[in-house]
Amino acid sequence: MSFVVETEHLAAGYDGREILRDVSLRVTAGDVVAVLGANGSGKSTLIRTILGLVPTLRGGIELFGAPQKRFRQWERIGYVPQRLGAGSGVPATVGEVVASGRLARRGIFRLPGKVDKTAVREALTAVGLLDRIDDPVATLSGGQQQRTLIARALAGQPDLLVLDEPNAGVDAASQEAFAGALTRFAGDGGTILVVLHELGPLRQLIGRAVVVHDGRIAHEGTPPEPAGHHAEPDHEHLHPHAEEIKPAICEWAPTEQTKAY
Amino acid sequence: MELFAFPYMQRALIAAVIIGLAAPAIGVYLVQRRLSLIGDGIGHVALTGVGVGLLTNTSPVLTAVLVSIAGAVGVELIRERGRTSGDLALAMLFYGGIAGGVLLVGLSKDSSTSLMQYLFGSLLTTSAEDLWVIGGLGAAVVAVMLVLRPALFALCNDEEYAKVSGLPVRTLNILLAVMTALTVTIAMRTVGLLLVSALMVVPVAAAQQVTRGFRSTMTLGIVIGVGAAAGGVLISAEADTAPGATTVLLALAVFVGTAVGGSAMRRFRRRSGDSPVTSEPPDVVLHA
Q1: Cα A90 to Cα A253: distance, rounded to the nearest angstrom
Q2: Is the Cβ pair A92, B213 closer than 8 Å?
Q3: Which of A160, A231, A245, B225 is the most buried (most CB within 10 A)?
Q4: Which residue of chain B comes nearest to A73, CA vs CA?
């Protein structure tokens, strides 16, 4: 059987510096997989390598059963980067940014048609930003910009969503909005691979957690159950992470959670 | 106005309008990418091409096209590869270009007049043959910029996302570089190599003071570019000033106008308390 994403003894890095050392990961259709780990563990590099943004040093990557180098069905993948790209010298509306998500499906020579416009509006509705479609993205809050990027990925109607820390620096309303959007996407049979700093509002959705440490997979299995006051639904993570637990493998698991194992 | 009965003035006006159209059409992508000065750099490199043409008695425009395309593709490859020394490498290329140009033009026979023509433009000497070249290349640039707008927008807005969308990122980057080089060489006759970049950047900068989206910025930028180019030729003919400099100063005047108007507009909106505006159409008309 073929997997949506499969890496075999993957090593990757920039400028001769090896960040991923040996990662074998399999994601099946319909999986919702969280990639967790401390800053610098290689968790972002893992998904960026899978997408071809970081050069592979050793090992293999297959996407939908095809070797990544020969993979051409990019419309099946929706990528949500950590932030909007640096190129913002000219204003762009939310609608224009989200419309970029249709390119993979439409091809670069065809002009956008009715189907594309409908898909853009549906994607913006899914993240609750339809009323901002004509506003410049620069006027949106960080969380709303993040939702714009998720809408851009959803607009392409992908089978696999790959998200890089969508929760980082995002207000609670936006976190809830895209947790809802992702839940609907997964409910329709979509596959999700998401890099997270902490599980947060996505906890209910995650079927499997992969913990990356020092370029290797340190732990793989069901996501850790919250314990103590972390289990309370209205609990807010106001305390600093990682600093107190020096030999910790990862930042996402504060001490109480680790004890619950 | 009777000056425009002369064919050379008509040719000058047509050439200026074509360049006023093409330069902001490509400039909007360069500004979006924060490569506003790339046109200036390629202009420096094009001067070496002019020198090669004058020295070898071939068409300076043709050699400038070839050399600036080579330069633009070289810049793109440096940008793509080096994250660290790109800035320095570009500086080397630019100064090498202008020094090489001055040297080569100096070696040819009629040096000083030619050099001034290319550095500051000589619109009035546009021949019918030149006009065909300017028209053909200008039409090609505008067509590519409009047809590939969604793809080029995605590329300039977020290059990594474009790559994951399966867009031919490298080909598009090189295409953009080649188109920039073509625009620089056709514009060197109007405004001169030293002011080429201004026509690519200033109309876009002026437009984005009052626009909300990319498409509206591109459209208004082109309108301002054409207006400034045509206005520059008309004013310079009446006032006997240099057409290139007049055009650029006119575009800058529009920029000052839209910057002041735009900030007044935003302040008015904030005071009337309906910010952030949600029902505003994306195209905001310029109030002069």
Answers
A1: 41
A2: yes
A3: B225
A4: B166
